[in-house]
Amino acid sequence: MSGMIEEHRWLKEKLALLPGKPGVYLMKDAEGRVIYVGKAKTLKNRVRSYFTGSHDAKTQKLVSEIRDFEYIVTDNAVEALILECNLIKQHQPPFNIMLRDDKSYPYIKITREEHPRLEIVRRMAKDGASYFGPYPNSGSAMETKRLLDRLYPLRKCRNLKKKVCLYYHIGQCLAPCEYPVDPERYEAIRKDIGRFLNGGHGEIVEELERRMHEEAEALRFERAKELRDLIQHIGRVMEKQKIVFQDQVDRDVFGFYAERGRMCVQVFFIRGGKLIERAVQIFPFYNDPLEDFGSYVAQFYFEETERPKEVYLPEGVETDVLGEWLGARVVVPKRGPKRQLVEMACENARIALQEKLALEERDLERTVGAVRELGDVLAIAAPRRIEAFDNSNLQGTDPVAAMVVFVDGQPAKKEYRKFKIKTVQGPDDYASMREVIRRRYTRVLREKLPLPDLIVVDGGRGQIGAALEVLQDELDLEIPVCGLAKDDRHRTDQLFLGDDPVPVPIDRHSQGFYLLQRIQDEVHRFAITFHRQTRGKRIMHSVLDDIPGIGEKRKRKLLQHFGSVEAIRQASVEEFRQAGIGDRLAEQILQALK
């Protein structure tokens, strides 16, 4: 670090001027971009710590890119916390922990309207409505809402219809569109839903079971079965809830675990004394784990209007500033069931992160191992970068080709390329391959792009020969080229390398073979998709774009209105009027299409 300071003496001078006050600092890279935002009780001590002493690998990565810094002094630590959240949201620095854009958790809302209804929202507002949740994802919220829709007859339509709909006939709506509804009835439903979601579903189940038995005794077995299914559905949806406290206080419980530069955070939502849901997030971090975890918690509540009365955090996390800002009781439990709950959140975070890391290691071994195995089979160095090509045409029309790139056994989709064949007439796959290989690697050489360790072509010796002809004879490149020939059932059957007429023996159940299959399937999919798009554009051009008076906007308008070219061909002049097309132009279109 001292070397960096000596090299940039003015940086050393800026460090000497840092004040001993609270505030926020912004680290910048060589291009002036903000790469990290942090807060400090004492700016002088915190910022200097980045440039003195030793750091672990992950912090060193951050420090190695710092070339400048700015700071903003605040009156107190709470202001620094709020400013830090704002600046992280504004700059989205790559070395900060940031919540995903969809971080806000869904709630179920009972609207405060004359005729209320249930809906799922991401934010709580002070609008007199009733909110329940949060739920960890929209799927969980939607499942619970569907259950409530079956149990309670609130209106389902956003705007009242003119007459009753199916929901009324199946007992899931009071039909305020036709029949008056007493406001007290709605208030009773609102209270029932609140009681149901806060642990009172057991009473509902008992009532449904009583009705189910009554229906069965009356030999109305179909209705009894519906009630039985509803009871089972309630059990599946509500089984996640378990009582943890008797005091009915709303709490959020945080736990985290950090390993190998990754952090997992678990949040348990306790509402009405019950653990109703949990949320999990895994992300990289580059600073002190406790400091970055504290930043995560601050961002978690930054835009939330509704906050729990209590927040429980693991040991070591500073609670005073966070509690003052949140207006909630933020504590680190020392003993008893509250401490056990935090430990359970931390343990779940540990299990989730280690499982994620283990799966990544297994996936890495499968992909990188497959690359090494393929290199051994072909007697070449492990082909870390593989580029594969495939041609696509329909009886010689709209010929195209596609290239996919695999790096260390994984698709690098940003490097995929598409080619429209320009110099070949008719269905000549060999000539098409020569054109594409020539265009691709002429550009690679001109722009000094990385060369592949292996080129894969879709086909046998003929396709390989076409590729080698360009690579070796025209471009003077020595890149291994292999081809995948298929049997009469269109299954990958043989592997050829270069101009050797003898197939390369490869175990069809090996990881190397599976890698080749994945590459072949991917490039074929990419080529076919591109060909369909190209052919579709040509067809659309030939029937619409050549009509005088039809530009891109009108073409899009016609297709949106009618749905297809065939529907346009069958339309009447009156229907064209509805699409905003005049009679004269409509007649021209119909004449051209027919």
From TrEMBL:
Cited function: The UvrABC repair system catalyzes the recognition and processing of DNA lesions. UvrC both incises the 5' and 3' sides of the lesion. The N-terminal half is responsible for the 3' incision and the C-terminal half is responsible for the 5' incision.
Any idea where this protein resides? Answer: Cytoplasm
Which superkingdom, per the lineage? Bacteria
Q: Which family does it belong to?
A: Belongs to the UvrC family.
Domain called UvrC family homology region profile: residue spans: 253-471
Q: What is this protein called?
A: UvrABC system protein C
- Keywords on record: Cytoplasm, DNA damage, DNA excision, DNA repair, Excision nuclease, Lyase, SOS response
* GO CC list: cytoplasm; excinuclease repair complex
Encoding gene, per UniProt annotation: uvrC
A Pfam cross-reference name = UVR
**Gene Ontology biological process:** nucleotide-excision repair; SOS response
* Assembly and oligomerization: Interacts with UvrB in an incision complex.
Task: Tell me which PROSITE patterns the record gives.
Answer: GIY_YIG, UVR, UVRC
Which Gene Ontology terms cover its molecular function?
Answer: DNA binding; excinuclease ABC activity; lyase activity
* Source species of the chain: Kyrpidia spormannii
List each copy of the GIY-YIG domain by range: 20-97
